[in-house]
Design brief:
Elements lengths: L3 H12 L16 H12 L5 H5 L5 H101 L10 H10 L1
Helix pairs in contact: 4-5
Amino acid sequence: MLSLQDAIGLDMDVMGSGFGFTPWGPDTCPTLEQLMAATTSSSSPSSSAGDAAAPCGTPEEDEEERRRRQRRKVSNRLSAQRSRARKQQHLEELRGRAARLRAQKQDLEAKLHVVARHELAVRRQNARLRADFAELARRHRELCRLVALQRLAQQLRSRRPLQPGGGPGAAALGLASLMT
């Protein structure tokens, strides 16, 4: 559909002087549709080379083509809008996932810190227990040696009578020196 300014421009171009005079004779006068098609194709600078090469159709076909193009533009706009919305939603999902992963990382770091402190305490306790074990093992060996010496001394006393003079025998003296 033509705007008012297009119609006024058409009127001035077609009519020439604007006083109702037409430069055509009665048998060569173009129809209104032909004038509209000629004016539309010559006045639209945005028409592509494909449009100029295409034969001019009837105004109904032109109007249908314009509607198709308009629907395509609207469809493309909606598609682009949906695409932007999907992209925005995906971006928000990624941001949410990143936030959850950061929170999970902080939780894991806190747990790791607790476990590391516990591991250090266990290592210290283990070292202390090893030192205690080493001390107890040393005392156990000494006690075992002392018990063995006492049994040996007892066996020696029970087998040999005391030497004349009331002193212990040579074996008992050697045993006593081992105990010290």
